[in-house]
Design brief:
The complex is a heterodimer of chains A (201) and B (399). Chain A is of the alpha/beta class and 201 residues long. Helix content of chain A is 35%, strand content 17%. In chain A, strand 3 (58-61) and strand 4 form a beta hairpin. Chain A is elongated, with a radius of gyration of 30 Å. Classes of the chains: A alpha/beta (201), B alpha+beta (399).
């Protein structure tokens, strides 16, 4: 079944579903956050669609809002579909689909860890990549890298933009320039003396 | 603590207690920095929870700060055992998003290095699995064959582990003179060696006893848990992205998709059950033979291609693309078949020369997701067998 037929079916049931016109890439449908599990359960269980495989769950930050993207695939009919949920930056909440596909467990934990998207009804929503006491949501565009973690500096003092280092480097470069100029002058002088006898000939 | 008196095993006053065993993060059999929080009741595993993130390098976040071409070396580090395939998956996603077309020679070169890398990755997997089961020699055989592949790659791109060979729109360098003959020689070298390898370990009774009926994943469970690649096919689901969603020129090549056939008296695993560890192992061994079959066809096509004049469009190894790639707004989920299964790149572009978001979906990550379910009720020694048979590579899990 192709993309447009699936979207028409969804719109007949849930009028809020949108399919934005795209110029490039894969087509996708934007579904409302409050009906996420309902719509995905329909996509999974309907015999004509039977999207029994969830390929991935990707959290994303577009700069204005957060996305959760669900690419689906059917092992029965070999067709694909992509669903997107758009969430606000403050208190992003969406229902968990780990009851439908078990693989969503780890992927939702990852989206929670990196983007702070709260999946309601998830059995064990913890951080997965970062340590449990890490602060902030590192995947977001406005995330600022912390300068220390539990009192341990994460950036070396001499690594970036340190005045002392830049001063030393400046001095060294100046010395090198002087040396180069000196050598060039010597070479020129040598050439000048070596060139004279040739002119006489 | 109850007063335990060990006088008689059948004594009702003797209690069994659950114990937490922390396995890792550098346990020699965990294939990397994986930590398992194992709750045991005697020798039996009550639950084994993977604790990951020790190798998290925020590769996906780096992808938002560098442009499309500069991200290629980072994809090497996503899965170091099959860098070529990781490169390939990323290049495919960007090419699909940008709508770039490739010359034939570039496609052939890509398939050649990808299949060679698949062989070398499977060599490590099956060798390491045998080593985990107590047989040391097969690992050395695997390493020995892998060295030959590394020599071939060194000749074409100069590196032996992280190749950074594929570029967006083709491959980095053309094949040096004599390289194709070297690949041909390798195919003829490996075929008898693999048969020898099979005699050594695949039919070994001790090896089979350790793996049969251990860590069973039924087909429904495998699909629901998002297992991919050889792990999925080991459960009897005949699905290969090269066959079912062909990319590049895979639809013109002839090869089979091996699946697990545990319990079938005429199959390769008559003692076991469908979807056990031995099935997953056998699928990998069979895949090596399929890759050799593909390589033989591609080598023939390359020899044909060599005869074309140097200016012919099919003879070029790179497509002509602009120096700075600006891709129109859009998003794509593109997947390709890696040794560890489907590697999917979700790439979203916002019209600039940098990606807005790159999400890497890897096979090992979802394999660890079902780990707790599969290992429940097994013995501790069998947990190691399950890790080895899932072929988990930790940099790919943590990214």
């Amino acid at each position: 079944m192709d993309f447009n037929t699936i979207v028409e079916r969804l719109i007949a049931k849930w009028p809020e579903v949108e399919a934005p016109k795209i110029e490039n890439g894969d087509p996708f449908a934007v579904i409302p956050a409050k009906n996420t599990v309902e719509i995905l359960r329909y996509l999974k269980n309907d015999p004509d669609l039977s999207f029994d495989s969830l390929m991935s769950i990707a959290g994303a930050d577009s700069g204005r809002e957060l996305w959760v993207v669900y690419p689906l695939h059917s092992f029965k009919h070999f067709h694909r579909f992509m669903v997107k949920v758009v969430l606000p930056r403050v208190n992003p909440e969406v229902e968990s689909v780990s009851g439908l596909w078990q693989m969503a467990d780890f992927f939702e934990r990852e989206a929670y860890d990196l983007y702070g998207i709260h999946f309601k009804g998830h059995p064990d929503l913890r951080r997965i990549m970062n340590p449990p006491d890490w602060e902030g949501w590192p995947g977001r565009k406005d995330y600022e890298y912390p300068m220390d973690y539990q009192g341990i500096p994460t950036v070396r003092a001499d690594q970036f933009f340190d005045d002392r280092i830049s001063k030393e480097v400046g001095e060294r470069e100046a010395k090198e320039k002087e040396l180069v100029a000196k050598i060039e002058a010597e070479v020129k002088a040598k050439l000048a003396t070596a060139g004279k006898p040739e002119e006489k000939k | 603590m109850p007063n335990v008196v060990i006088e008689n095993v059948t004594n009702p006053r003797v209690h069994s207690e659950e114990m937490v065993l922390s396995m890792g993060p550098h346990h020699p059999s965990t294939h990397g920095v994986l930590r398992l929080e194992v709750v045991t009741d005697g020798e039996v595993v009550v639950s084994a929870r993977p604790d990951i993130g020790y190798l998290h390098r925020a590769i996906e976040k780096i992808g938002e700060y560098v442009d499309y071409r500069q991200f290629m070396p980072y994809t090497d580090r996503v899965d170091y055992l099959c860098s070529m395939n990781s490169n390939y998956a990323y290049a495919l996603a960007v090419e699909k998003l940008g709508g770039y077309k490739l010359p034939l020679r570039a496609e052939l070169m890509r398939i050649m290095v990808a299949e060679l890398n698949r062989i070398s990755s499977h060599m490590i997997c099956i060798g390491a699995l045998a080593m985990d089961m107590g047989a040391y020699t097969p690992f050395l055989h695997g390493i020995c064959h892998r060295e030959k592949v590394n020599d071939i790659f060194e000749e074409v791109c100069g590196a032996r582990l992280t190749y950074n060979y594929l570029t967006i729109g083709g491959v980095g360098y053309d094949a040096p003179p004599g390289w194709i003959e070297k690949c041909d020689k390798f195919v003829h070298y490996l075929y008898p060696k693999m048969i020898e390898f099979n005699d050594l370990i695949t039919g070994n009774t001790i090896f089979q006893e350790r793996l049969c009926n251990v860590g069973i994943v039924s087909p429904e469970k495998a699909i629901n848990y998002g297992l991919v690649g050889p792990n999925l096919r080991g459960s009897g689901v005949k699905f290969d992205i090269r066959k079912n969603e062909p990319y590049s020129i895979y639809d013109k090549l002839k090869f089979d998709v091996p699946v697990g056939d545990g319990g079938d008296p005429n199959g390769s695993n008559p003692r076991g059950t469908l979807g056990d560890s031995y099935d997953r192992y056998v699928v990998r061994v069979k895949e090596v033979f399929e890759s050799l079959k593909i390589l033989r066809q591609v080598v023939d096509q390359m020899k044909e291609n060599e005869k074309l004049p140097a200016e012919h469009p099919d003879r070029q190894y790179q497509a002509k693309l602009p120096a700075r790639l600006r891709i129109k707004r859009g998003e794509v989920y593109c997947r390709s078949e890696n040794p560890r299964g489907e590697t999917g790149y979700y790439v979203a572009s916002d019209g600039t020369d940098k990606a807005m978001r790159i999400k890497i979906r890897t096979g090992s990550f979802s394999a660890l997701g079902c780990f707790e379910e599969v290992t429940r009720g097994l013995l501790i020694g069998d947990v190691i067998a399950v890790i080895g048979s899932f072929d988990i590579v930790l940099p790919e899990v943590d990214r």
